[in-house]
């Protein structure tokens, strides 16, 4: 018996390559990161949430994306270095006073955030991007973990705060959990 069904040989299956994302970020000081992780563990227990809590070295506050795609070319590296080195912003105080869930389709990031924009944070974004007018209010946040459901908004009795003294260019690989600091720049104090 013969089959009239078309058959294609597409070769062996290989999983899709991870996407590379390059962005500028503020990294928390050690004490602030440890407080954030302690809070994340307590939050999961209190609200019955699941999800892998980020490692301390992966915690960050995103500033501006440089590139998303496959691989890092020398041109992207040079471009990012120019953007980072031209930022002449001053250090600033960053204070997260609440933890909230942000809605997505199947995953709900549990994030630390604050009630309003932070002038020093906005100034750093403007310095990096070269944009003088940022449309809308930019409110910093730091993702702690992704859960399968939302949890209530919680105002923190003990806010998590630190003085931001620098920023970094970060390279992550989507879907792989890889996080690497490419370069760092200080802020004036």
Label this structure with key terms.
189 residues; alpha+beta; Cyclic Phosphodiesterase, Chain: A; four-stranded antiparallel beta sheet; 3 helices; 8 strands; 22% helix; 35% strand; disordered N terminus
Give a topology summary.
Elements: E1 20-26, H1 30-47, E2 61-69, H2 74-86, E3 92-101, E4 108-113, H3 119-129, E5 141-147, E6 154-164, E7 166-173, E8 178-186
Antiparallel strand pairs: 1-2, 1-7, 3-4, 3-6, 4-5, 7-8
Could you please describe the fold and organization of this structure?
Residues 1-16 have low confidence and may be disordered. With 189 residues, the chain is α+β, with helices and mostly antiparallel strands. It starts with 19 loop residues before the first strand and ends with a strand. The protein has a single domain (20-186), classed as Cyclic phosphodiesterase (Cyclic Phosphodiesterase, Chain: A). It has helices at 30-47, 74-86, 119-129; strands at residues 20-26, 61-69, 92-101, 108-113, 141-147, 154-164, 166-173, 178-186.
Full CATH superfamily name? Cyclic phosphodiesterase
- CATH fold topology: Cyclic Phosphodiesterase, Chain: A
Structural class: alpha+beta
Rg of Cα set? 20 Å
The portion of residues assigned to helices is 10-25%
First-residue to last-residue Cα separation: 81 Å
Oligomer: single chain
CATH class: Alpha Beta
Shape assignment: globular
* Overall number of strands: 8
| Order of strands in the sheet with most strands | 2-1-7-8
Concise structural overview:
The protein is α+β, with helices and mostly antiparallel strands.
């Amino acid at each position: 018996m013969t089959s009239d069904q078309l058959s294609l040989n597409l070769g062996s299956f290989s999983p899709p390559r991870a996407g590379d994302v390059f962005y500028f970020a503020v990294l928390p000081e050690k004490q602030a990161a440890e407080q954030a992780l302690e809070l994340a563990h307590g939050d999961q227990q209190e609200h019955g949430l699941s999800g892998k809590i980020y490692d301390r070295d992966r915690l960050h506050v995103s500033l501006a994306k440089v590139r998303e795609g496959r691989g890092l070319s020398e041109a992207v590296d040079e471009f990012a270095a120019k953007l980072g080195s031209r930022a002449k912003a001053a250090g600033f105080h960053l204070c997260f006073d609440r933890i909230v869930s942000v809605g997505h389709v199947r995953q709900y990031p549990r994030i630390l955030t604050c009630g309003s924009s932070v002038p020093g944070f906005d100034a750093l974004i403007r310095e990096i991007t070269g944009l003088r007018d940022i449309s809308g209010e930019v409110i910093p946040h730091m993702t702690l973990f992704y859960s399968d459901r939302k949890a209530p908004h919680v105002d923190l009795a003990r806010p998590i705060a630190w003085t931001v003294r620098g920023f970094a260019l970060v390279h992550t690989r989507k879907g792989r959990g890889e996080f690497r600091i490419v370069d760092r720049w200080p802020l004036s104090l």
